[in-house]
Amino acid sequence: MATSTLPRGWRAAGRYGLLTAVAVVVLFPIWVMVVGAFKPFGDVLQDPLLPTSVTLETLRTAWRDGNLGRALVNSTIVSLIVTMAQLVTSVLSAYAFAFLRFPGRTFAFGVFLATLLVPFEATVVVNRSTIQDLDWLNSFQGLAAPFLATAFGTFLLRQVFLQLPKDLREAARMDGLGHLGFMREVAVPLARPSLGALALFGFLSSWNQYLWPTVISTDDDWNTVQSGLRTLSQAQIDKPNLVIAGTVIVALPIFLVLLVFQRQLVRGLTAGAVKG
Amino acid sequence: MTTNRRRWRDLPLALAMLAPSLVVLVTFVLYPLGRAVWLGHQRCDPTGNRCSSNGWDQYVDVFRSREFQQAFGVTFRFALVTVPVGLALGVGLAVLADKQLRGIGFFRTVFSSTVATSVAVASLMWFFLLNPSVGVLADWIGGVAKNPGLLRDEDTALWAVAVSSVWANLGFTFIVVTAGLQSIPAELYESAYVDGASGWTRFTNVTVPMLGPTLLFVGVVLTSRAFQSYGEFDLLTGGGPNGSTTSLTYLVYGTNSVIKSNDGLQAAVAVLLFVVLLALSILQIRGVERRIHYGD
Q1: What is the fold of B65-289?
Q2: If we measure between CA atoms, which residue out of A36, A163, A270, A69 comes closest to residue B129?
Q3: Less CB within 10 Å around the terminal CB: N or C of chain A?
Q4: 3-state DSSP call for residue B42?
């Protein structure tokens, strides 16, 4: 290898150079967006790469015109409902599959497995009319309902529960703990890292839902941030930097959340890749 | 005898614990699929109200229709580009950042960052960049990018959407491949080094085979995402120009779709989308399973 004859310092410098160049390319769209969001309306053609004139006016207008405050509240409430519900439903069903023996277990397991094969996009036609029949259009329950349980979460936690030492359950039984007590006092606390990953993953996927809220929220007051951006972009198609300011407002909170919870995110995303 | 009794004794508790998940999954995943299969053979009037059975041939009719075939072609080409390119870029970034250097954490955060962008955020970012009148990229590229604009030209629109999608998925691929790289035992590299393997040989003979399961996982996820992509097309092109970016999902749900208010046809296309994805995941897993190495 030719590179191995180069002095160490040069190779490190080369790698840093390459890393920096790639980082610039990856961040480029984000940079242009942020610069555009802080520019006044008429100025967007001037120096699109440099924040030569900075104002909060564009962001303020986007906030107001896009009704983004309301959308942020809606998204937060829906995502919190989904996250909590997924934790509860997944813990319960994972526990049943890991610790209980009962007739029909294989069949029930097959039902959960089968749901993983159905793309959500193929079910929206029917789910929309289900929600309509329930009179849940434009409501939190309508926005959250299809995501309250997930086979992914069930399998993730079942795997964790199966890896707990068998003696734990025996010892707990000696102490007179039933299944519910064992689940609450022992199994759930020991699964905390995976619960954290599942919670973040559930929150993120609910927050990022696009098709579902555009179908369910026919009234702009019920927009989530994603469908709110759609409404804003269609209403203000001739004001590009107003739309991009709205995009910054929507992107910022989740950037901050992920910066804090990086570890849980990695665990959640790689869960499917790890053999198990 | 005793084991048998214990099996039945747990049943009520098991049912109670499974019930919440089962109710949701059956109502919003399995029932809709079954119902869509049923709806798919119904023909509805243009208002979408009065539907009547049209025979199961409707699936064949839809499959043969020009609209379906065009949308299938669009989706297929979109996946054919975004999946390999996204995988290659993600692996490249992960290998590049897989070194213990000072400040590498910063670069890893940057490379992961696009995972935080939803499809709406990523799409509107690229819409801004490619905007023929104010977009920076449009200025730099010039020509067709200025007039009519990459997203408004029939020959370039799909590839412009693909760029946005590859960028948005880069963070996900980077994170998962990085985790995969870190699980490869260092001894394997050391013994390859001792055997005199060059950097490239170590990459092809150690890294790639050991990454097999990870690459399969990412490949399956990216393919299924590509086939289910909707927001990109809705926000960037609205299925146009001239149907050149009408994907299967856009054909079902898009505002400009020709079958917009026909529940029967929408359901039929949705079911065919499910069948295509099912076939793809089976093929993908079957085909790659034989060649990958599952480390124990």
Answers
A1: MetI-like fold (1.10.3720)
A2: A36
A3: N
A4: strand
